[in-house]
Amino acid sequence: MTALVTGATGFAGAHLMEALRQSGEAEAYGTSLSGSADGHIRQTDLTDYDAVVALLDELRPETIFHLAAFASPALSFKEPVVAVTSTLAMQINLFQACLALRIKPRIVVVSSGQIYGMSDAARLPLDESTPLDLPSPYAVAKVGQENLVSMYAKLGVESVIARPFNHIGPGQQPGYLVADLTKQIADLERDGGGVLRVGNLSSKRDFTDVRDVVRAYIQLAAKGTIGEVYNVCTGRSRSGQEILDLLLTASDAQIRTEPDPARMRPADVPDLRGDATKIRLDAGWVPEIPLEQTLSDTLAYWRSR
């Protein structure tokens, strides 16, 4: 089987490429804007329709994992037009290319649990039928992706939608809570301690190890129902303060915290916790890696840098 991973050099994309290679069940190719020395990573601008057609015509993939998109909810407030238009353009080009080439790959489109937004606490945990409440331009783009799946299904494009909640782990770059905290702690350990700058630590999120998340994508490609939406989550939310406490316990450095206004988001969802019943029943997926192990591995990643 030939599989294509868009956004293959991103955080989740790189882990997905590795998981596909380790499985031995797929010849995995990926796209990246910057290119790579790896012959299986193709430098491709997915907003360029002709480039997308050429790539799909060459590879003729049986499965596509569409991860490429504007990646940061926080940065989407600074670049809302780019966040929405680039994300939708990439997916439209991908779907249009499939139609033009008359190929019918099974596509896993990656949305986000952030689209549930400011949901009432009484509705937690959030299942796939929960009404949406969009808190950011990033979330608007993700709902647009889901709507494109519905529209193109009428034209014969076969897709499954994954709604991952917050995923964390080794390789995630700064700009996200766990990556920011672990990198700062590793840096402070090298300096003998100091000040750890933090944003809002009261918000609670449903954190899943990225290695579990990409395993969910693979299982959805194999077993998910076409046209359906699946939460990818643990069913338990943890506050930023809980995460910080676990990380500080794992460090011997003398570290104190200070609030950093630059790390505060204009709109921050108080609690986001999903219900993963549907993906468990349909695809047989359950998360396996404990949060403590994920945090330990992520801290080790930054300590080695």
From TrEMBL:
Gene3D superfamilies: NAD(P)-binding Rossmann-like Domain (3.40.50.720), UDP-galactose 4-epimerase, domain 1 (3.90.25.10). SUPFAM superfamilies: NAD(P)-binding Rossmann-fold domains. Residues 4-297 form the NAD(P)-binding domain. Transmembrane segments: none annotated. InterPro entries: NAD(P)-bd_dom, NAD(P)-bd_dom_sf. This is GDP-mannose 4,6-dehydratase. It comes from Paractinoplanes tereljensis.
